[in-house]
Specification:
single chain, 474 residues, alpha+beta, Anthranilate synthase, 2 domains, 21-stranded mixed β-sheet, 11 helices, 30% helix, globular, isochorismate synthase activity
């Protein structure tokens, strides 16, 4: 990506913007192909979710994620460029799209600010070959027409556009100017939320029937006992049938406030379906040459009192079954990333990570990123981890669809963003819901290992799925 020495604030006029876009058109004509032009401006504090609410369109791609505990939030919508792929080569295909786009990209302004420059918002489904009728492809990546990002108290608004040889820049000038004016002085008071945002739930239906999950756990324990797999993760799904269409952004404000340690998120497919949730699990982050991941497996409920909460946490730290489940995940991460030359560092024993309604065993894992290794190289080796699939992966993952009885889609998928420097962050699509028309499907899962009890695993998934039901008013 080429960064041009232009200050969009110092030259904030229609004429200066038109001259700049004419310069970009000249570059496009010499290159004989359109250029992605990214204009970033530092602005006063904005709420990306509120901005997204104000312009949300079901027929446009969108991406939103917020982690309040880390003062991180970003939203983008309306694709200026997008790409889809499927199959085992989807990570390489995604990287090729990013590389090709950046080879013909021009950027100005606060490129080094919070989420400055073009962001590649990306969603990988759990499987690399989802069914033809599923709402999301194996990978969906797009550069938004607009984005607003906040990190550590700084906010940057970005407009992205394509400028091709011979393009009339006048409508582009007007579009960028209007966006610039809106983002610099955003009117929260007159940002309207749709009147039909709340759809009363008429019926709650367990996908596959009331006994399906317990039967699946019992079947999985048989496979574990026979040595086919060491661990397998099984999910439940519940369908909420509404009286009307449900707005996908309606629940997010509550999710981000209740689960401040989690990633509150929404991903739209541009065809009316959205995948939302509050995920506790970072899959991978790359920032300033350093890779961060984590093992998050093994869990128990929160206590009603401080004493009960501490007792439950201490019991979890000594629970043989939960520790074995956690160790499978941590060992797999080390094993899968080793071929990339990463010198991974982690504490010897897991610690507790407490969320609003559940506490987990947690092991943070870090390493310096070797030269030539990129974020998607590591992601391709990690996804799906044993925390959402099982171990060995090659044996466990093919069993999941038959045992669960429904397609996962983006549930337990990898969602996140990559910037022009190659930095980025991905989280796992957990504690989530697929909103499509009048039906909202909720997902929650649990890891099954030797010693698992079907009733206890069902109770764990109920604890997780209840949080989404509550957020959706069901």
């Amino acid at each position: 990506m080429r960064i041009l020495p232009v200050d969009p604030i110092a030259n904030a006029s229609h004429e200066a913007l038109a001259n700049f876009l004419l310069e970009c058109r000249g570059i496009a004509e010499r290159a004989e192909r359109p250029q992605l032009v990214s204009i970033s401006v530092a602005v006063d504090s904005l709420d990306p979710l509120a901005v997204l609410e104000s312009i949300f369109e079901p027929g446009e791609l969108h991406f939103y994620v917020e982690k309040p505990s880390e003062q991180l939030a970003v939203a983008g919508a309306e694709a200026v460029l997008s790409f889809r792929a499927s199959g085992p080569g989807r990570f390489a295909a995604c990287q090729a799209f990013i590389d090709e786009t950046l080879a013909h990209a021009l950027a100005v302004g606060a490129v080094d600010g919070a989420f400055g420059g073009p962001q590649f918002f990306t969603a990988f489904t759990f499987l690399d070959q989802p069914g033809v009728d599923e709402p999301f492809p194996a990978v969906q990546v797009f550069v938004p027409r607009w984005q607003v990002g906040c990190r550590d108290g700084a906010t940057v608004a970005t407009a992205n556009l394509l400028v091709g040889p011979g393009d009339d820049v006048r409508p582009l000038v007007e579009r960028v100017w209007r966006a610039h004016a809106k983002f610099r002085v955003f009117d929260y008071e007159h940002a309207e939320f749709p009147a039909d945002a709340v759809a009363p739930v008429r019926r709650v239906e367990e996908v596959g029937g009331a006994g399906r999950y317990r039967e699946a756990v019992a079947s999985a324990l048989g496979r574990i006992g026979s040595g086919v797999v060491e661990k397998i993760v099984l999910a439940r799904a519940q369908d909420l049938h509404g009286e009307g269409l449900f707005h996908p952004l309606r629940a997010l404000n509550g999710l981000r406030e209740r689960f401040r340690e989690c990633y509150a998120f929404s991903v739209g497919n541009g065809a009316g379906a959205s995948f939302i949730g509050a995920s506790p699990e970072r899959l991978l982050r790359v920032r300033a040459g350093r890779l961060t991941t984590e093992a998050l497996a093994g869990s128990t409920r929160r206590g009603a009192t401080a004493s009960e909460d501490a007792a439950l946490g201490n019991a979890l730290l000594r629970d043989d079954k939960e520790l074995r489940e956690h160790r499978v995940v941590a060992d797999s991460i080390f094993r899968r990333l080793a071929p990339l030359g990463l010198q991974l560092e982690a504490p010897a024993r897991p610690v507790l990570r407490r969320l609003a309604n559940v506490q987990h065993l947690h092991t943070p894992i870090e390493a310096a990123l070797p030269p030539g290794v990129r974020l998607l190289d590591a992601l391709a080796r990690l996804h799906p981890t044993p925390a959402v699939g099982g171990s060995p992966r090659e044996a466990a993952v093919p069993l999941i669809a038959g045992l669960e009885g429904f397609p996962r889609g983006l549930y337990a998928g990898a969602l996140g963003w990559i910037d022009a420097r190659g930095d980025g962050e991905f989280f796992v699509g957990l504690r989530s819901a697929l909103i499509a028309g009048k039906v909202t499907r909720l997902y929650a899962g649990a890891g099954i290992v030797a010693g698992s009890d079907p009733e206890r695993e069902y109770a764990e998934t109920e604890l997780k799925i209840r949080a989404m039901r509550d957020a959706l008013g069901a």
